[in-house]
Amino acid sequence: MGIYGYIRVSSTDQNEDRQIAAMREAGVAETNIYMDRQSGKDFDRPQYKIIVGRLEKGDLLYILSIDRLGRNYEEIQRQWRILTKEICADICVIDMPLLDTRNGKDLMGTFIADLVLQILSFVAESERSNIRKRQEQGIAMAKARGVRFGRPEARVSEEFPKIVRDWERKRISIDVALEKCGVSESTFYRRVREYRILQKNKH
């Protein structure tokens, strides 16, 4: 029987020490610990694919918590079925003893494990959704405060009104107007439209 451990951290600055310590304590050899530094939104991860390819019937896979496996509810369910039903390997979720397929292989044990898995994977995806909503709310609030995102707005010359008048009266060409303003042609025309609207509203 092979004993493996899978670790996932979401970014290069997240500390994986706790997961590694848990694998060592469980008796997983260093050579059998696989780690991805990647988001848990899907299972397109190189090290995870390797470990799935190595797992055989009767092998044991340790993960620290269900969210280390992933954060997509449906994908967690699908991968769990692949590992336990198709490959016939066992999984032990260290932080959740009820999710240890070595125990309770009877009908009731399987039912409890499946129920717990559904709850935990749903919670994992809900948390991911909540994080995304909080990010969207934070961006919306920042925009309401006047914070700008993306490329900085191109600044135009303080002499812009005079440049526009000269251009409209054909005293200067469009190329000269662009050079004086220091902006692209599309930005110049957009600013001209905004300027005209502003002037119209003043009268």
From TrEMBL:
<keyword id="KW-0229">DNA integration</keyword>
<dbReference type="GO" id="GO:0015074">
    <property type="term" value="P:DNA integration"/>
</dbReference>
<dbReference type="InterPro" id="IPR036162">
    <property type="entry name" value="Resolvase-like_N_sf"/>
</dbReference>
<dbReference type="InterPro" id="IPR050639">
    <property type="entry name" value="SSR_resolvase"/>
</dbReference>
<keyword id="KW-0233">DNA recombination</keyword>
<dbReference type="Pfam" id="PF00239">
    <property type="entry name" value="Resolvase"/>
</dbReference>
<dbReference type="InterPro" id="IPR006118">
    <property type="entry name" value="Recombinase_CS"/>
</dbReference>
<feature type="domain" description="Resolvase/invertase-type recombinase catalytic">
    <location>
        <begin position="2"/>
        <end position="146"/>
    </location>
</feature>
<keyword id="KW-0238">DNA-binding</keyword>
<protein>
    <recommendedName>
        <fullName>Resolvase/invertase-type recombinase catalytic domain-containing protein</fullName>
    </recommendedName>
</protein>
<comment type="similarity">
    <text>Belongs to the site-specific recombinase resolvase family.</text>
</comment>
<dbReference type="GO" id="GO:0000150">
    <property type="term" value="F:DNA strand exchange activity"/>
</dbReference>
<feature type="active site" description="O-(5'-phospho-DNA)-serine intermediate">
    <location>
        <position position="10"/>
    </location>
</feature>
<dbReference type="GO" id="GO:0003677">
    <property type="term" value="F:DNA binding"/>
</dbReference>
<dbReference type="InterPro" id="IPR006119">
    <property type="entry name" value="Resolv_N"/>
</dbReference>
